[in-house]
Design goal:
Blueprint (H helix, E strand, L loop, with lengths): L9 H12 L5 E5 L4 H15 L2 E5 L4 H7 L4 E5 L9
Parallel strand pairs: 1-2, 1-3
Length: about 90
């Protein structure tokens, strides 16, 4: 069986994807250069509503990302290209 999902916007797709893999009290590793709106969504949706820990890391070194991953990590989130305002 195959699953498919369609959305009208990048934001809807991103939120649906995050909510499908992240559960309450999980850990998320996110690259620190993500779009500010994404960061706000993570804080409002994941941190405030689901008590998720979001750790923002400098992803220019893969060792930094690897070191941030724990047994509770359910998602590693990146955007490409990253926030152009940084």
């Amino acid at each position: 069986m195959r699953n498919c999902s369609c959305s009208r916007s990048e934001w809807a797709a991103m939120a649906a994807t995050c909510l499908s893999v992240v559960e309450a009290r999980d850990h998320v590793v996110a690259f620190d250069g993500i779009y500010g709106g994404t960061r706000l969504l993570f804080e409002d949706l994941l941190v405030d509503s689901l008590d998720v820990t979001v750790e923002y890391v400098d992803a220019t070194e893969t060792a930094t990302v690897e070191a941030a991953v724990t047994d509770e990590t359910s998602l590693i989130y990146m955007e490409s290209p990253t926030n152009p305002l940084l």
